[in-house]
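ESCALATION

Customer reports they have been waiting on this structure for their group meeting. Please prioritize. Original submission:
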Amino acid sequence: MKQRIAVEDLNQLTYEQQNKLRQLWLPRIGNAVNYKYDNEVMFININAGDYNIILIRGNDKIRVAKEDCLPLLNIGQLIELILDNEVKNNYPEFDGFLTRITKDTCNEMWKLVINLL
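Update from on-call: job pushed to the front of the queue and completed.
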């Protein structure tokens, strides 16, 4: 199962869409990112403010600007982005999808896993 969007997914975005994604994204430690669009996946080590991010590349840490990165959003981040930005108010086609997802979706899924154990 696909766990996060891929660099190829980001490459399909227009320049305007990439900028909007950066505006909506709140960088956090552990986020996967594509830096400078070089098809390399790196992870945030330290969020040093809204515009400075420390990435890990091998054993090296490099300080980069948020505008030089695009997030490789995981499933949870995609859900959070959709719910936090009220996509269903602007895009009715998401309404059926969003009615099944709430802030408690993770807890509900965890209960299902516990039942499997």
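Sent to customer with the following note: The longest helix spans residues 105-116.
Escalation resolved.
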